[in-house]
Design goal:
Length: 147
């Protein structure tokens, strides 16, 4: 049995659906995660969200032990967390960074990014569809999908 893909979300993503829908869309995080779970080859993926930086760091460490690949939307911690950067740097599995919006096209403070330099790839600005692309990439990169 291959290891699962971990899909981790950071602060305020629990408010998706009602939080600035003109930027983040109307899907809830559970809508997005449910669609991922129904994607071919996705059985057993682990989907979580936390508002706590420490918990997110612990989950990244856990992914390093238990996951075949990591999909991470660190939300605002993307722009602030050296702890998260350091944890990601220890990983030997593919790590796909996802953002619903395109932070590079928004406020200047969102151009600071501690995740991208230690991620395999970044998908941003495609809304919830970005998660589906990230899962396809994660399965491919971790050798769980043929084509
Ligand atoms: C976000 C972008 C971040 O800048 C922001 O802090 C978020 C969501 C996104 O998915 O577009 O909370 O990660």
């Amino acid at each position: 049995m291959s290891k699962p893909v971990y899909v981790l979300g950071g602060p305020n993503l629990n408010l998706l659906g009602t939080r600035e829908p003109e930027i983040y869309g109307r899907d809830t995080l559970e809508d997005i995660y449910a669609r991922l779970r129904s994607q071919p080859g996705a059985a057993g993926i682990v989907t979580r969200q936390t508002n706590s930086e420490g918990e997110l760091v612990s989950w990244v460490q856990e992914a390093g032990r238990e996951a075949s690949a990591l999909i991470l939307n660190a939300a605002a911690y993307t722009h602030t967390s050296i702890a998260l950067h350091d944890a990601l740097k220890t990983l030997k599995i593919p790590t796909i960074e996802v953002h619903l919006s395109n932070p590079a096209a928004r406020e200047a403070f969102r151009r600071v990014n501690y995740v991208a330099p230690v991620a395999t790839a970044t998908i941003a600005g495609l809304g919830a569809f970005g998660y589906e692309l990230a899962l396809t990439a994660a399965l491919r990169l971790s050798g769980q999908e043929e084509s």
